[in-house]
Design a protein that fits this description.
Order of helices and strands: HHHHHHHHHHHH
Strand content: under 5%
Helix content: over 70%
Number of strands: 0
Radius of gyration: 21 Å
Number of domains: 1
Largest sheet: none
C-alpha cells in the first residue's frame, strides 16, 4: 500500500506538471489567433479545452486517483472522466491548430516534417476510420474490466498508467468522427454517426447490467478494502455500474441530440470535406503561418 501511494504521488506530480505546461501553450496560441483575427478559435472552444485538462487532472492526479484501488466507483469515475468527458472536450478545443501557434516555431517545424510525409495521410485515414475508432474504444472498455486484467492495473503502477492512457487515447479516437476537429475524406454519411453513438452504448449497457445484477462481487480485491462512504463491496459495485450506465447514456444522448439538431437545421451548410492533398498543403503551411505571426508581433513591438 505504501509503495502504491508513493508511486501514485510521483505520477500525480508529473501529470500535473505536464498539464500545467500544456495550458499556457494552448492559451498563448489561442491569444495569437484572436489577436490577428486569423482562423479565429471561439472562446467556448478554449473553455472546452481547459475543462478537458481539468477532468484529466481530476482523473489521474487528484486525490480521486488514490481511491481507485479502494473503490470500484472511484475507478469508474476515472474511466468516465477520461473517455466520456475529457476526450470530446479536448477535441472541441481544436488543439492541433491552437497548440501549433503556441508551441515554439522550431518544435512545430521538426514535428511537422514527419506529419507531412507521404505515408501519414494514408495512415491517418485508416486509424481515424469510424469502425476502427468504435472497436478501439469498445475493446479497451471490455478488456480492462476483465477481472485478471483489472487486477493487473491495480497491482502494477506501470500497467495502471497504461490503463489510464489507453482510456484517454481510445476516448479521443472514439469522439474524433463525432466532433470532427479536422474534416477528413471519410465517405460515411453524417447520419451514420447517430447509429455510431447508439451502438457505442451497448458494451457499456452489457457491462453495467452484469455488474448491477451479478449476485457476487466480481473484483474480489474490494472485499478487503476499506469501505469508503459506508458502501459494502457489493453496493460499491452496483453504484459504479449505475454511474457508468446513466452517465454514458446521458452524454451519448446529448451528443446525438446536438448532432440531430444540426442535421435538421434549415440553415446548415454542407460539410466541406478536405481531400488528403489539401490536408497535406494545410499542414505544410502551418509552420509558415506560425512564422508570419512571429514576424507580425516583432513589427508591432
Amino acid at each position: 500500500m505504501t509503495s502504491h501511494i508513493h508511486h501514485g504521488a510521483s505520477e500525480s506530480f508529473w501529470i500535473s506538471g505536464a498539464l500545467t505546461l500544456a495550458l499556457p501553450m494552448y492559451l498563448q496560441g489561442w491569444l495569437r489567433l484572436r489577436r490577428h483575427d486569423r482562423d479565429n478559435v471561439d472562446g467556448w472552444r478554449a473553455a472546452s479545452f481547459i475543462f478537458g485538462l481539468l477532468f484529466i487532472w481530476i482523473a489521474t492526479a487528484s486525490p480521486l486517483a488514490t481511491l481507485d484501488h479502494e473503490m470500484l466507483t472511484a475507478h469508474m469515475v476515472q474511466h468516465l472522466l477520461l473517455m466520456t468527458l475529457a476526450a470530446p472536450l479536448i477535441l472541441l478545443g481544436m488543439p492541433r491548430k491552437t497548440l501549433a501557434y503556441g508551441l515554439p516555431r522550431r518544435f512545430v517545424q521538426e514535428v511537422g516534417r514527419p506529419v507531412r510525409s507521404e505515408p501519414m495521410p494514408q495512415f491517418a485515414s485508416v486509424v481515424m476510420h469510424p469502425a476502427l475508432c468504435w472497436l478501439a474504444a469498445a475493446g479497451t472498455l471490455v478488456v480492462w474490466h476483465i477481472p485478471s486484467v483489472f487486477m493487473l492495473g491495480l497491482r502494477s503502477q506501470t500497467w495502471h498508467g497504461i490503463e489510464q492512457a489507453s482510456f484517454l487515447a481510445t476516448g479521443l479516437l472514439f469522439w474524433w468522427p463525432v466532433v470532427q476537429p479536422v474534416k477528413n475524406s471519410s465517405k460515411w454519411p453524417e447520419s451514420s454517426i447517430l447509429l455510431y453513438l447508439f451502438l457505442a452504448t451497448l458494451p457499456c449497457d452489457i457491462l453495467s447490467g452484469f455488474l448491477v445484477f451479478c449476485d457476487r462481487v466480481v473484483y474480489s480485491v474490494f472485499l478487503s478494502s476499506p469501505h469508503s462512504l459506508g458502501f459494502s463491496a457489493r453496493e460499491d459495485q452496483q453504484c459504479a455500474a449505475a454511474l457508468m450506465w446513466t452517465c454514458v447514456t446521458f452524454v451519448y444522448l446529448f451528443a446525438g441530440a446536438i448532432f440531430t439538431a444540426r442535421l435538421l437545421s434549415p440553415n446548415r451548410a454542407p460539410y466541406q470535406t478536405e481531400d488528403l492533398a489539401i490536408a497535406q498543403i494545410a499542414s505544410r503551411r502551418l509552420a509558415e503561418r506560425h512564422t508570419d505571426l512571429h514576424a507580425v508581433e516583432m513589427e508591432t513591438v
